[in-house]
């Protein structure tokens, strides 16, 4: 049995004068990014019950320290906006994300040599570990892909109401450094997912294949075009 093939889709991003993404993806299901000196606001253009706004608080180092996700979920009888997710983000002195806290529960992040090696997720009644491996001969290149984003793999954060396009928000903020320092090397695997890369003659990544080891016939291929020469 071969791989299942679906119709490719093209995802575009709109940047501001400072090189920050402020609309993603272009087209339907957009996220708008509003940047301020002390906060970032993400507005998801989804129909109810996925009409959600994320309010991120920044510290003086431009790291996200707090998230409040507000939504009016009419499917659950909401008549006004409610706080559906409230998280605190903790960093060490070097700027690496070390914990995410929700009430008296927390997820911890472990590093070795400047690379994230494990996440122990204990939020929302979870108790899961996600291990990471790296291609130590390939310097890290940030890509706006959720599969490569550590917090995307935390099942505890995939809860209602979660916008359909929430994965783009996670990836974009992570790769912009708002969740702390990025790894030194290219990610080879996260938990059950493995990644292979193709590069052009400028060593820019032009293709990424993401494979779920537990569903070996399924993979996702991302292709990247660079407009700046």
Please describe what this structure looks like.
The protein has one helix spanning 166-175; strands at 14-15, 21-24, 31-35, 39-44, 52-58, 64-71, 82-91, 97-102, 105-112, 115-121, 128-139, 185-190, 193-199, 205-212, 219-223. A 15-stranded antiparallel sheet has the order 1-2-3-4-5-6-7-8-9-10-11-12-13-14-15, with helices on one face. The longest helix is centred in the last third of the chain and has 10 residues, at 166-175. Strand 12 and strand 13 form a beta hairpin. The chain has a single domain (14-182), classed as Porin (Beta Barrel). It is built from one helix and 15 strands; from the N terminus they run E-E-E-E-E-E-E-E-E-E-E-H-E-E-E-E. The N and C termini lie far apart (41 Å). It has 229 residues and is mainly β. The protein is globular and about 55 Å long.
Task: Offer a few descriptive terms.
single chain, 229 residues, mainly beta, Porin, 15-stranded antiparallel beta sheet, 15 strands, 4% helix, 44% strand, globular
CATH architecture: Beta Barrel
User: Structural class of the secondary structure composition?
Assistant: mainly beta
End-to-end Cα distance, whole Å, is 41 Å
Q: Could you describe the largest sheet, including whether it forms a barrel?
A: 15 strands, antiparallel
Identify the strand order in the major beta sheet.
1-2-3-4-5-6-7-8-9-10-11-12-13-14-15
Quote the CATH topology.
Porin
Helix content: under 10%
Which CATH class is shown? Mainly Beta
Low-confidence stretches: none
Note the quaternary state here. Answer: single chain
Helix and strand element order? EEEEEEEEEEEHEEEE
Helix count? 1
Q: What's the pLDDT, averaged over the residues?
A: 87
Structural domain count: 1
So what's the overall shape? Answer: globular
Strand content: 35-45%
**Count of beta strands:** 15
Radius of gyration: 18 Å
């Amino acid at each position: 049995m071969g791989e299942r093939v679906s119709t490719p889709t093209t995802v575009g991003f709109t940047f501001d004068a400072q090189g920050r993404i402020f609309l993603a993806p272009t087209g339907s299901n957009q996220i708008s990014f509003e940047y301020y000196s002390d906060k970032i606001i993400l507005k998801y253009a989804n129909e109810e019950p996925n009409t959600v706004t994320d309010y991120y608080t920044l510290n003086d180092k431009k790291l996200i320290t707090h998230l409040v996700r507000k939504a009016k979920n009419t499917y659950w009888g909401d008549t006004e906006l409610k706080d559906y997710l409230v998280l605190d983000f903790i960093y060490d002195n070097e700027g690496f994300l070390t914990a995410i806290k929700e009430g008296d529960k927390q997820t911890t992040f472990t590093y070795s040599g400047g690379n994230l090696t494990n996440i122990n997720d204990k939020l929302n009644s979870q108790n899961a570990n996600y291990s990471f491996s790296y291609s130590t001969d390939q310097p890290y290149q940030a890509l706006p892909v959720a599969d490569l984003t550590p917090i995307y793999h935390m099942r505890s954060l995939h809860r209602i109401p979660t916008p359909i396009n929430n994965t783009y928000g996670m990836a974009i903020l992570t790769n912009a450094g708002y969740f702390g320092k990025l790894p030194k090397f290219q990610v080879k695997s996260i938990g059950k997912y493995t990644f292979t890369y193709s590069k052009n003659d400028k060593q820019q990544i032009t293709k990424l294949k993401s494979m779920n080891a537990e569903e070996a016939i399924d993979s996702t291929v991302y292709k990247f075009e660079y407009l700046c020469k």
